[in-house]
Structure formats: C-alpha cells, structure tokens
Specification:
By secondary structure, this protein is mainly α. The chain is built from four helices and two strands.
C-alpha cells in the first residue's frame, strides 16, 4: 500500500474520531470528503496494481495480449468467496450439522419430491 494512502487513512480516522466526539456538521463534512478521496485513491491504486499484473509482451497495440503470471493467478484465487459444503439444516426445530445426517435428510427430501410414476 502506498504511504500517501496510509497517511490519508490515518488522517481519516482522526477526523472520524473528532467528528464523533464533537458531532459538528463541519467535522462530519471534512471526514466524509476525506473518506471519499481516500476511497478513490485506493481504488486507483488497486486498478494500477491489476494493470501491472497484466503486463503485455508486445509493443503493437493491435496484438497485445496480457501475460497471465503466477502472481496474477494467486491474486485471482485470493478473491474467491466460495463456501464448500452444505450449511447446517433445520428440520422440525432441530438443527442438523453432521455430514451424514445432512446427506440422509437431503436424500429423503429428494426421494419425496422426485418420485417415479407408473406410465
């Protein structure tokens, strides 16, 4: 993180503390303005970081292709927000968190919903 952004974040926190303590409109406005500027600068720094990750090999603008480096893929993997597994289930005011019990509950449910009918 850029040192100027760190300074802005520290100053923003100080302004927040002052605004919360004094509860004056002027202090809240200063805080909100700096918060907006900090967010914008941080966003621009993040975008620049991503562009640096996607450096190009060619000088020709028509045939430029980004190079997918290990650092780029590490960044992509870090952005995942997937949850693996099934959340705890509730049946008749009873919460089931055991994997085997959840599997049995889901199996029974799908058996009851998807039944084979005789033609």
């Amino acid at each position: 993180m850029n040192s100027s952004i760190k300074r802005m974040i520290r100053k923003k926190q100080k302004l927040y503390n002052r605004a919360r303590k004094s509860n004056s409109q002027a202090d809240w406005k200063k805080f909100k303005d700096l918060r907006k500027a900090t967010k914008k600068r941080s966003s621009l720094a993040h975008d620049k970081y991503l562009l640096d990750l996607l450096k190009t090999d060619d000088k020709d603008l028509e045939t430029r292709k980004p190079t997918m480096t290990k650092q780029f893929w590490t960044y992509i993997r870090s952005k995942r927000q997937e949850n693996v597994g099934v959340a705890p289930l509730e049946i008749n005011d009873y919460i089931v968190s055991d994997s085997r019990e959840k599997a049995n509950l889901l199996s029974n449910y799908f058996k009851s919903v998807f039944t084979k009918e005789d033609p």
